């Protein structure tokens, strides 16, 4: 009844506000007799509630953009599969199924269901109604200048854009979580089909992966049937079926080595913070908060869960990274990448925008090493050629038991013909010179100048440069002409800002605790338990 009471309070406030707006406009509200007015007000509220959701309607949780809690634990809805007519699943214990009715109530349809392979089938469906746009990128809410830059850059690529604000700011246990972002959306016809077609075309043209931003006016609906291991119908739910089993349910065909426990703890804390930072800012209009892919947070399903990761999650339960900023304890943008290559990068060098005190580039090697002393204060233009040719490099990501040498140091070669084809959309003609203009503290490229026979162009940003040359491993590279080829020699895998995941493993293997690991990669930040 709490939700209904809350809705009644909100709707009553809306009625009062409407009266205030009418008075402000110079219109008189008709006087109501005390009893008759109260009766009519009650009737009006009852009419408003005739279409209100049931207090425990599962769809209200699925479509909510806010973080919900159950007995002190956050409830995070995650998409693990989508777009299927049927899904097979195997409960790890006795199955309970709750079927939703048309009115939004739930009724128990299956209790202590038998072990084996159960299946869900979509019987019929009516698509939702709303606007769909291709989301090109998201920008930090505090970086107003980046919005204008993005408009200009996408327009130069022939993609007109619109801007939407997503996410919100809220508090948890006295700490601030601000998930607000600017979403840069490609202009289109606003249809789902048009957005998907446009996304496919842009992905093919630009070599990037895009998401669909949905603004929902009416939710999709239909009927879902649950069939038991014998194939018999066990339940039918209107738009949703809730399945429960202890210790969980494995979903078939849902798209990971053992790491040191302290590294897993560090990863658990940063991943939890990344999840909190994305609540309400991703998948607007979808019946879940996050997806189980790299766009939000990779999750391979319960079938691939391991005791080590479960132990790390339990040991750090409720913890996320916070740092004091402006007198408030605020959630740290706990980004991470796979392999830093020996030095992490400043956030502003990777994504632009204002510097984040917790995301400063730092060496990922033993700072007492005499061999590496020359690199201690940064790599930059003067040392990058020497640094990327250190092979092996005594960095923690290289010394880790899970290191991948081809990601710590790498080489990519492109024939002249291929480079001319890659750069043809820039209108420079046959390429004569490639030169990095500006580097971050780790030596990662901030801009690339491309000189051709017809013109000169510049590509700004670590990620656009990597994407242009068919997804280079990182922006930490030097590029040289050798014979008929352009050769990129580099280090690292990923953007390099925040925690180096492989480096964290190397540090843990050498005795560092998860708090020490996090304290190194995120300056001035510390894990705080918030639930």
Instruction: Work out the helix count.
Output: 15
DSSP strand content: 25-35%
Name of the top-level CATH class of the domain at 129-218: Alpha Beta
What is the CATH architecture assignment of the domain at 129-218?
2-Layer Sandwich
Average pLDDT score: 82
Number of strands: 29
CATH topology description of the domain at 129-218: Alpha-Beta Plaits
Helix-strand makeup class:
alpha+beta
> What is the gyration radius calculated from CA atoms?
27 Å
Low-confidence stretches: 1-52
* Largest beta-sheet details: 5 strands, antiparallel
- Span of the ends, CA to CA: 24 Å
Q: Can you put this structure into words, describing what you see?
A:
With 531 residues, the chain is α+β, with helices and mostly antiparallel strands. Among the domains are: 51 residues, no CATH class; 90 residues, Alpha-Beta Plaits (2-Layer Sandwich); 87 residues, no CATH class. It is built from 15 helices and 29 strands. The strands form ten sheets. The protein has a five-stranded antiparallel beta sheet, with no helix packed on it.
């Amino acid at each position: 009844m709490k939700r209904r009471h809350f809705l009644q309070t909100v709707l009553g406030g809306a009625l009062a506000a409407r009266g205030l707006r009418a008075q402000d406009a110079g219109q008189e509200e008709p006087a109501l007799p005390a009893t008759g007015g109260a009766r009519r007000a009650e009737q009006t509220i009852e009419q408003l509630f005739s279409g209100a959701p049931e207090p425990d309607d599962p769809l209200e949780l699925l479509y909510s953009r806010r973080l919900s809690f159950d007995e002190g634990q956050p409830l995070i809805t995650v998409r693990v599969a989508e777009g299927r007519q049927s899904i097979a699943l195997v409960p790890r214990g006795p199955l309970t199924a709750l079927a939703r009715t048309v009115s939004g109530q739930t009724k128990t349809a299956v209790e202590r269901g038998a072990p084996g392979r159960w299946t869900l089938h979509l019987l019929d469906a009516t698509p939702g109604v709303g606007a769909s746009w291709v989301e090109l990128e998201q920008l930090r809410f505090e970086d107003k200048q980046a919005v204008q830059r993005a408009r200009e850059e996408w327009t130069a690529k022939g993609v007109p854009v619109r801007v939407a604000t997503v996410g919100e700011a809220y508090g948890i246990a006295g700490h601030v979580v601000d998930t607000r972002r600017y979403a840069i959306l490609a202009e289109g016809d606003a249809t789902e089909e048009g957005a998907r077609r446009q996304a496919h075309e842009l992905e093919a043209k630009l070599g990037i992966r895009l998401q669909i931003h949905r603004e929902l006016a009416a939710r999709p609906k239909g009927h879902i049937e649950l069939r038991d291991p014998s194939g018999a119908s066990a339940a039918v739910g209107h738009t949703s079926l809730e399945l429960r089993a202890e210790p969980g349910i494995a979903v078939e065909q849902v798209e990971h080595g053992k790491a040191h426990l302290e590294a897993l703890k560090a990863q658990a804390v940063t991943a939890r913070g990344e999840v909190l930072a994305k609540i309400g800012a991703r998948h607007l209009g979808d019946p879940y908060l996050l997806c189980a892919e790299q766009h939000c947070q990779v999750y391979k399903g319960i079938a691939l869960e391991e005791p080590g990761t479960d132990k790390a999650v339990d040991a750090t339960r409720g913890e996320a990274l916070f740092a004091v900023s402006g007198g408030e304890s605020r959630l740290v943008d706990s980004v991470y990448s796979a392999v830093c290559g020996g030095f992490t990068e400043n956030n502003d060098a990777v994504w632009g925008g204002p510097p984040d005190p917790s995301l400063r580039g730092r060496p990922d090697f033993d700072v007492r090493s005499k061999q590496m002393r020359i690199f201690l204060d940064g790599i930059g233009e003067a040392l990058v050629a020497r640094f990327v040719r250190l092979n092996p490099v005594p960095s923690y990501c290289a010394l880790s038991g899970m290191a991948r040498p081809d990601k710590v140091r790498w080489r990519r070669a492109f024939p002249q013909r291929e480079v001319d084809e890659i750069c043809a959309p820039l209108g420079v003609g046959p390429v004569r010179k490639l030169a990095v203009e500006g580097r971050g503290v780790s030596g990662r490229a901030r801009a690339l100048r491309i000189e051709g026979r017809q013109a000169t162009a510049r590509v700004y940003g670590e990620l656009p440069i990597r994407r242009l040359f068919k997804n280079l491993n990182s922006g930490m590279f030097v590029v040289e002409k050798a014979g008929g080829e352009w050769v990129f020699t580099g280090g690292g895998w990923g953007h390099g800002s925040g925690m180096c995941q492989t480096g964290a493993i190397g540090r843990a293997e050498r005795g560092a605790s998860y708090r020490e690991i996090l304290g190194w990669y995120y300056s001035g930040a510390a894990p705080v338990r918030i639930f």
